Every structure is written in structure tokens, then in C-alpha cells.
């Protein structure tokens, strides 16, 4: 997060001792540590939420593609079913025509 070297850290401690005094410094460091901890947790939670949202969007896009593929397959199945039904109807018509003929007349 912050790139602070040992020299900079020592300088900050000396300034803090001068400003706060040695008796208030431990409490100030404790409060600062809690604040930094909360800040890190908030950052981690926000990062996790963003990652989940991105994954959710990717999943939505993938599901959309699958839905489109399923719709195409459904259309193809409907088309094939329609063609099969037409063929069956034609077969029924031929059978009905054959049943209506009088084959006795043909044998004479």
C-alpha cells in the first residue's frame, strides 16, 4: 500500500513523539493501526465485490450465448418436426387413396 522505508518511518516516529509526546504516542499508534486495519478490510471487501460483479457479468454473457444456441436448436427441431409431419400426412393421404380404390375393377 504505502512504500515507506526505515528512514522515513523513523522520521515519522520522531515527529509524532515531538507533537504528541511519549505518553499519548502508544494510544495514537493503536488508533492509527485500527484505522489502517479497517481501511485494508474495506479495500479487500470492495475488491472482492468488484471481482464478483465481473464474474457475474461474464456468467450472464455466457448464459446469453447458451440461450441463443438453444433457441437455434429449438428452431431446427421445430423445422424437422414439421417436415416429418408433412411426410406422415402424405403417407396417410396415399393410404387413404389406396383404400378408396376398387381393385376388383382393375383385375377384370
Structure description:
The protein has 108 residues and is mostly helical. The protein has one domain (14-97). It is built from 3 helices and no strands.
Spell out the blueprint of helices and strands:
Blueprint: H1 6-20, H2 25-100, H3 103-107
Counted by DSSP, the helix tally is 3
How much is the radius of gyration in Å? Answer: 41 Å
The beta-strand count equals 0
Q: For the terminal residues, how far apart are their CA atoms?
A: 106 Å
**Major pleated sheet:** none
Please indicate the count of domains: 1
Provide the β-strand percentage band.
under 5%
List low-pLDDT spans: none
Basic shape? rod-shaped
Average pLDDT for all residues: 84
SS content category = mainly alpha
- Helix proportion: over 70%
Helix-strand pattern, N to C?
A: HHH
Features:
about 90% helix; mainly alpha; about 110 residues
Summarize the structure.
Helices cover 89% and strands 0% of the residues.
